[in-house]
Amino acid sequence: MGNNNGNGRSGFAYDGFQLDKGWPGLDVGEGIDVHHDRVKNLLKALEEDVERLKGVNAGTVAHLRVNGRVTPAHLGDWDAAQQLAAVFSQGHTSLTMSYEKLITQYEAAITVIKASFLNIGKADSASDVGK
Fold it and tell me: What is the value of pTM for the model shown?
């Protein structure tokens, strides 16, 4: 089976997942500095973006649902075209559903960020008691 010296079949050692030492936030030092105004602006931008995706303009799920279909009439009356139309229909449904799931996850991420930001605010307030 080749050289399997405990490092897998390739023979290369796996050192595990390594973090870049220069990645911001790994070395906390004196604490974490949260720029509240920046976080609020980021949340506002994310909320505006997700609302835009939920709208009806080009690039939205609603627009894709209505205008993204390739119908049998687009392809023609011959047998192969009709079969291809069924494939396009399945693809359209799959894309639309995936897009909707993306938006749902996007909204969930915003909810988590908001909750985290609120908790940071509560912790900041609590740590200021008695100062």
Answer: 0.65
> What is the pLDDT averaged over residues 4-11?
52
39: closest CA among 50, 31, 47?
Answer: 47
Cβ proximity of 117 and 39 under 8 Å: yes
In 3-state terms the chain splits into helix, strand, coil percentages (rounded to 5) of 60, 0, 40
Instruction: Give the Cα separation of 72 and 56 in Å (integer).
Output: 24
Residue 8: pLDDT over 90: no
CA distances from 62 to 9, 54, 66, 67, 99 (A): 49, 7, 6, 8, 10
Number of neighbours of residue 61 by Cβ within 10 angstroms = 20
Tally the C-alpha atoms within 13 A of residue 9's C-alpha that lie toward its C-beta: 1
Mean confidence (pLDDT) of the chain: 83
